[in-house]
Amino acid sequence: MDASRIVITGVGLTAPNGNSLPEFRQNLLKGVGNIVDIDMRYVGKVHAGVCDYDARKYQTRRELRNSTRAGSVAIFCAREAVQDCGIDWSKVDPARVGVYVGTTEHGNVETENEIHNISQFDYDVRYWSHHHNPRTVANNPAGEITLNMGIHGPHYTIGAACAAGNAGLIQALFMLRLGEVDFAIAGGVSESIHTFGIFAGFKSQGALGKHEDPNKASRPFDKGRNGIVVSEGGALYTMERLPDALARGARIYGEVVGYHINSDATDAVLPNAERQVQCMQAALKKANLKASEIDIVNTHATSTPQGDIQECKAIRNLFDPVTCANTRVNNTKSYIGHAMGAAGSLELAGNLPAFDDNIVHPTINIDELDPECAMETLVVNEPEERPQINTILNNSFGMLGINSCLIVKKFAP
Fold first, then answer.
1. 228 and 303 in contact (C-beta within 8 Å)?
2. In CA terms, which of 18, 193, 205, 333 is 20 to 30 Å from 285?
3. Do 261 and 238 share a domain, yes or no?
4. How is residue 15 annotated by DSSP?
5. Distance between terminal CA atoms of the chain?
6. pLDDT one-digit tens code per residue, 308-347
């Protein structure tokens, strides 16, 4: 059996509209999102995707006081993924487990909170928390998983902006193929709704989405879209070499067959459609697949006017509606907003069950499709059942022009 074949054997997640894959999937098929209004320090009322998971399930109150939100999300997702994969954790060598967590940014909220706290005491740094440094180091979310679960193998976070969720899985694939680890926990997490800097930054750019109905605020491809809805969340996967997964009789969600990461090198914010095409083409080449063999393209589109148009240009360029008539295009941010570093991994999770039920979840909140975003194969507002779904191409792009593409295939021996 080819040990270079890497498979997904467990999924753990928390999203604004679900705390398990079955719940998340059901809400995607029913068209149920969950965006609410929150009061953000210095910014005021904003739309946000807020998770409501049981943080006490795997952490004590004391641990939560010393932890970070990103770390707590990561622990919940990692524990749920390991439980889901069915492995006997007591028999796993902790030195052979790797943890690779993608994130957009981490630690800003901790520093903001400490500055706010000492401002109440005339900026006397004696009131600065001694937990600040371990809370804000970049490896915190992954490191908190290892502390909580007793993992001795390598851990780190991958800063890849909003491409980070895919990047986490790609890194796990590398480490498994290299034989550096035998079992990996990988994906992405985000705590972005807890930092006012994120909201203030998007607001100053004119890129913060707004609507009288919060659940309509994130509306990729709609003519009236006006910006991003910031969300928190996470999705982590257990990944193994195929022979190891088969030897223990694991359920296999899918096989990672293609991947690529590249850079636009043109603009810090505006995406480059040509580079996005190149990223998808390279992933297809590694997967030994043609564009016409992709059944679902899950888009990154964030509900920004120009960003959505650029990605649609890229998809139309590569997925010709005639030769790729069986390909369907969808978007998950229309339900949950933009979960930043967790976006790619959450969006992949939402589509994985399609290998079993052969249903493509739709893009919701499209009242009037923007002609510049028109794609004949876009699934709009209602789910679509297909004869068979064997391949998913997952796009995630980020600031500073980083692009990631991951292709997962239905497992076949």
1. yes
2. 333
3. no
4. B
5. 9
6. 999 999 999 999 999 999 999 999 999 999 999 999 999 9
Examine the pLDDT at 105 and tell me if it is beyond 90: no
> 155, 300, 324, 373: which one is catalytic?
300
Which tokens hold the place of 360?
């493509």
Residue 1 has pLDDT above 80, yes or no: no
Q: Once rounded to an integer, what is the mean pLDDT over residues 241-256?
A: 98
DSSP 300: -
Mark which of 222, 247, 272 sits at the end of a domain: 247
Looking at residue 139, what is its pLDDT? 96
Is 51 an annotated catalytic residue?
A: no
Q: Residue 190 is part of which domain span?
A: 6-247
**CB-based contacts of 178: which residues, under 8 Å, 6+ apart?**
none
Residue 96 near residue 153, CB atoms below 8 Å: yes
pLDDT value of residue 290: 98
CATH code for the domain of 396: 3.40.47.10
pLDDT at 318: 97
Pick the catalytic residue from 51, 85, 162, 279. Answer: 162
**pLDDT tens-digit profile of 19-50?**
999 999 999 999 999 999 999 999 999 999 99
DSSP tag of 374? -
Apex 281 CA angle, 318 and 300, nearest 5: 70
In which element (H, E) is residue 336 found?
Answer: helix 333-336
Q: Tokens 């040990």 belong to which residue? A: 3
Of the residues 247, 271, 287, which one is the last residue of a structural domain?
A: 247
Tell me, yes or no, if the pTM score tops 0.85: yes
Kindly state whether residues 11 and 67 are assigned to the same domain.
yes
Active site residue 361: no
Confirm whether 252 is domain-assigned. no
Q: What Å distances lie between residue 17 and 30, 83, 162, 331, 394, CA to CA?
A: 11, 21, 20, 15, 20
The tokens of 385 are what? 């059942």
CB atoms under 10 Å from CB of 263, counted, come to 12
Is residue 395, in this structure, part of any structural domain at all? Answer: yes
Tell me what pLDDT residue 161 has.
Answer: 96
Taking 3-state DSSP, the helix, strand and coil percentages for the chain, each rounded to the nearest 5, stand at 40, 25, 35
Active site residue 338: yes
Q: How far apart are CA 395 and CA 391, in angstroms?
A: 13
> Which residues are within 8 A (CB) of 365 and not within 5 positions of it... i.e. 6 or more apart?
33, 215, 216, 218, 219, 220, 222, 334
Q: Per residue in 366-398, pLDDT tens?
A: 999 999 999 999 999 999 999 999 999 999 999
